[in-house]
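Entry 12.
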Amino acid sequence: MDLSASKTSGGGRVRWLIIWLIFLVSAVSYLDRTNISIAAQDIRTEFALSQVQLGTVLTAFILGYALAQPFAGRLADRFGGHRVIGWGIVWWSVLTVVTASVASNFAGAFVALIIVRALLGLGESVIYPASNRLVANWIPAHERGLANGLIFAGVGFGAGIAPPLITMIMLSHGWRAAFWASALIGMVVLVIWMWLARERPDRHNRITAQERAYIETSLSDSARATSTGGGKLLRWRDIISNRQMQLLTLAYFCFGYVVFIFFTWFFTYLSTVKGLDLKSSGFYGMLPFIAMAIACAFGGWGSDKLAARFGKRAGRCWPAAFGMGMSAICVALATQVGDARLAAVVLALGSGSIYLSQSAFWTLSADYGGASAGSVSGLMNMGCQLGGAAVAQITPIIAESYGWTASFMVTAVAAMIGAICWLMIDPHAKIEETSELAAA
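Predicted 3D structure (tokens):
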């Protein structure tokens, strides 16, 4: 993957600095959201929670995150992704500390955990709609696959370093100290973000005239208006009624159902079902997230290359359909593997496969949205997070009634439905045109 060519083709590197900064913020956001799944069994024991109650706590974050997505996107469209991300980092860092401050002997501790995690979800909801707003401002369409691939590689990186980092702190200082450390890392990243990132190319004092001209001339008319602070926002009814957005959101719901089983129950599955100790679970718990990071960056790069050579359908839709289909196969196969370590490897292949599709979701939502990229991607991402909320709550119920194999087989079916959706998505459609036709 030749990143240097991409960086220098526009006569500068500042647009890629913005992407790497979003990668860093993305990594920290996932460190702050996955720490509770790693500490889940300690928290469950300390607070005397049932498995279903623990699932409710995990679901509270996802529901808060999911329901705020469209509004988070609109905030980014109106006030700018740079500023909104800064607010978000402060919010979720503070709430991470509050989570660790809930006393286990407090009579309302269970309810308090639910409320705090839901509020934390609200704070984190801004990260990816605001990021997509910045991608629309900074990145030409033909580079967005790689850009989004790098951004969402931060998901795998953050979630991948979380198991060894959190378990190391837990073993020596307890789970609360691990949460405090996560919040401190967030505040350090906030300083870096406010120092180096800017909303648009014309506001960054490090950008060259050549790179700025390259960005502006490579964008479409609507995207160029967006990158300079203009552009009309789409109406919500036009976004929601668009068939392509409905398919994209359904596919992302299925995506969320699959990936959130790794963020919420995978670590518990390894430690309690497969019998791995905390140290071994911390190591093998990294594998799916390492696979996500690698596949996400590679998938974004490959998507751009295929789109440039064979068109947007071949570059965006086919790799996404392939990735989700392969994930379905891997997740189903993993249920038939008896050895815990081999099962973790097969599941890691499944998580990596589905992340081949990640950049396509965000690239198309930015293309569809134009000046409303934050709103469009926020609505789409709400579908993903509702899928995550569903898997967080449903998985322990299915596991208790039918076993963990059934839980993962349902996940495999969701991945296959997402793959079918991608075969029906039109990457060339525009929301404005579809809405006008629908109104007629």
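Annotation: The radius of gyration is 21 Å. The chain is about 80% helix and 0% strand.
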